[in-house]
Design brief:
Elements: H1 2-19, H2 33-57, H3 67-87, H4 91-122, H5 143-155, E1 168-169, E2 182-183, E3 193-194, E4 200-203, H6 208-214, H7 216-219, E5 221-227, H8 229-238, E6 267-269, H9 273-276, E7 285-288, E8 295-306, E9 312-314, E10 338-341, E11 347-360, E12 368-371
Helix pairs in contact: 1-2, 1-3, 1-4, 2-3
The chain binds zinc ion.
C-alpha cells in the first residue's frame, strides 16, 4: 500500500499543479525521490500562497456564490485532500481519494492522448507541465442526485446512519461514459469493483474497530445486496446481516421467503448492482417528487464490503428471461454472479444506492414515459 500511496501522491500533485495552474515543473516518472519531495513541498507551498491570496481578495466579497468564492472552496478542499494523503490516518477517505485520482488520471489519459503527443512535439518549453482538464465529479447541480436525495429524505432514516462525505453520484453527468466501468483499487483485494452506473450512492457510517481490525478498505470486496427500505434499515440497525431463523429486535423470526430453497439459511450478494437490483426482495417503490412533480419508481440496493474468501461464488438463481438470455453483466459471467454466505460478520454495509426511473411526467400524467438516467 505504501508504494501505491507514493504513486497516488505524485499523480495527485501533478493533477493539482495543472488544475490550479501552478508555476511548477512536474518531474518525470524516473526522477529521484528527492526531486519528487521537493516538487511536493513546493506544490503545497504554492497552493497555500494561492489560498491566502484568494482569502485576501474575498475580504470584501459578500456573494457566497461568486466564481472566486467557489474557486477558493475548491482550492481549500484540494489542500485538505492532499493533507489526507500526507497524514495517512483516515483509510476510508484515502480509499475514496485514490479512486478519484485514478479515475481522473484515466479520464485525462483518454482525453489528452492526442493532445499530449502534439504538445510534447510542439512545446517550446520541454519541461512545461501538461495541462489536464479538470473533471466535474458530483456536480452540485446534478438533478438526479437531488431527486435521489429527496427520496432518501422521504425514507426518514436516522441521520446518524449516514456518512454524507462519501456520497457519490454515478449518473451520466457525474460519471460520464468515458470513465471506466470497473476499478481495481486495492492490491490486497482480488475482486474487481464494478461501478454502479446510473445509481446514486449515499455513504453509510461503518464501525471503526471493524474496519481497522479487518483492513476492510484495503482487503474486502465490494458487493451489492438488493432489498426494500425497511429490511435495509433493520440490518443497518442490527449492524449485521440477518439470516433466516434469526430473531429480530421486535421479536419477529425471519423466515425463508416463499419461492426460495427450504433450509437454505444464506445471505446473497452480487459483485454487480444490475443483478442485485433484480433480487426478488428488491421490489420497486413508487415516489412522486416535489422537485419536478414527476412520478418515479425507485429501487434501493445496499453496497457491501465483504470479507474475501468467506463466500461461495455461484451462478445466477433468478429467472434470466428478464435479460433475454443475455448475461446480466458484461464484466462478470452469469455463473459467477451470485455470492452466498452464512457468516454474519463477513458483510458490512457502507452505502445505500438509489436508482430512479421516471414513469410519469408532470406535463402528461397519463402518457407513460421511461427515461433512463
Ligand atoms: Zn449525478
Amino acid at each position: 500500500m505504501d508504494n501505491k500511496l507514493t504513486k497516488i501522491r505524485r499523480t495527485f500533485a501533478a493533477q493539482l499543479t495543472a488544475k490550479h495552474k501552478l508555476k511548477l515543473t512536474i518531474p518525470n516518472h524516473d526522477s529521484s525521490e528527492a526531486t519528487f519531495e521537493l516538487f511536493l513541498r513546493e506544490m503545497q507551498q504554492q497552493l497555500h500562497k494561492k489560498l491566502a491570496k484568494q482569502n485576501e481578495q474575498l475580504l470584501h466579497e459578500s456573494n457566497g456564490n461568486s466564481p472566486l468564492f467557489i474557486q477558493k472552496k475548491q482550492l481549500q478542499k484540494d489542500i485538505e485532500d492532499f493533507q489526507l494523503l500526507e497524514q495517512r490516518q483516515d483509510a476510508r477517505a484515502i480509499q475514496q481519494l485514490i479512486e478519484r485520482v485514478e479515475h481522473m488520471a484515466m479520464f485525462n489519459r483518454k482525453q489528452d492522448i492526442g493532445g499530449i503527443a502534439s504538445s510534447i512535439q510542439s512545446s517550446q518549453l520541454p519541461n512545461q507541465p501538461i495541462v489536464m482538464s479538470p473533471i466535474k465529479l458530483n456536480s452540485p447541480l446534478c438533478s438526479y442526485r437531488a431527486l435521489c436525495s429527496e427520496l432518501v429524505e422521504r425514507l426518514n432514516w436516522p441521520s446518524e446512519v449516514f456518512a454524507s462525505e462519501y456520497d457519490r453520484c454515478f449518473c451520466k453527468t457525474c460519471y460520464p461514459l468515458s470513465m471506466p466501468n470497473i476499478c481495481q483499487v486495492n492490491t490486497g483485494n482480488k475482486y474487481p469493483t464494478i461501478i454502479p452506473r446510473n445509481w446514486m450512492k449515499f455513504g453509510l457510517k461503518v464501525d471503526g474497530v471493524q474496519t481497522k481490525v479487518h483492513q476492510i478498505w484495503d482487503k474486502w470486496a465490494v458487493s451489492y445486496h438488493g432489498t426494500v427500505p425497511s429490511a435495509a434499515l433493520s440490518m443497518i440497525k442490527h449492524r449485521q446481516i440477518c439470516l433466516p431463523g434469526d430473531t429480530l429486535f421486535d421479536g419477529t423470526r425471519l423466515t425463508i421467503r416463499l419461492g426460495h430453497i427450504p433450509d437454505q439459511k444464506a445471505f446473497f450478494t452480487s459483485p454487480t448492482i444490475r443483478y442485485a437490483a433484480q433480487n426478488h426482495y428488491a421490489t420497486s417503490i413508487e415516489f412522486t417528487s416535489q422537485i419536478d412533480k414527476c412520478v418515479y419508481t425507485a429501487k434501493i440496493v445496499l453496497r457491501c464490503r465483504q470479507m474475501p474468501d468467506s463466500f461461495t461464488v455461484q451462478g445466477q438463481t433468478l429467472n434470466n428471461s428478464i435479460q433475454n438470455d443475455s448475461d446480466f453483466c458484461d464484466l462478470i459471467p452469469d455463473d459467477e454472479i451470485e455470492w452466498k454466505t452464512d457468516k454474519r460478520g463477513s458483510v458490512i454495509f457502507d452505502g445505500l444506492c438509489v436508482h430512479l426511473k421516471k414513469v410519469l411526467t408532470h406535463e402528461n400524467n397519463f402518457q407513460q414515459t421511461t427515461v433512463h438516467y
